[in-house]
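Async update (no meeting this week)

Hi team, since we skipped the sync, here's where things stand on the single-chain job. The sequence we agreed to prioritize is pasted below, unchanged from the tracker. I ran it this morning and attached the output directly underneath so nobody has to dig for it. Comments welcome in thread, and please keep replies under the output.
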Amino acid sequence: MTEDKAQALVSSLREKLGASLLDAKFDRGELTITVEPAAILKVCTTLRDDPKLAFRQLSDLSGIDYLSYGKADWQTHDATSSGFSRAVSTFAEIADTFEGGRFGVVYQLMSIVHNVRLRVKALLGEDPPRIASVTEIWPVADWYEREAFDLYGILFEGHPDLRRILTDYGFIGHPFRKDFPLEGYVEVRYDPEKKRVVYQPVSIENRILVPRVIRDDGRLPPKPAASDKTNA
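Output:
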């Protein structure tokens, strides 16, 4: 999408969505709008039915957890020139952006009529996060919303069958949340006495998996000297 086309689309969106449109950002050829979560049904219906927009295809729907977004668990700026770095930038700006919404739902839309793609984002501040289901607007959202519920714990109100879809029936927690431990809460094993699989508390020691990379120039690992090759 060109910048001129994006600006024209934003003008149409502001006209059609009014106060429900909170923000619009064009970056790297993609347009992302942030909308009021309470108005998601009205917004999505307008995006689908208005002939000037005609976003009739939902390509994807996913959840996001912004917990500690923009904050590093280890050194970043100080380590950039000498070792591993997460390359976090504009920390203060990023950290302030998502104060009001830890969770988010992102809708990837496509207008085949106008050959335009649009990313719609709704930020949810409460826990558990809640937002209306868009299955009545795009039926394909059914399994997408179940996946976001399973992995992030996002409740889609009005969904016809909101059950886990990837994890086990007795799974505890939501594994894509950033405060979910890497080892999980429980593990399974086969019990020869009971002759079935049983759940038990996880036995793996909780640890932080931080890679440590030592480099001479900050980019490439040190090359072995010619004498080292000879001795080897």
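Quick observations from my side:
The chain has five helices and nine strands.
The CA atoms of residues 20 and 36 lie 5 Å apart.
Reply here if anything looks off.
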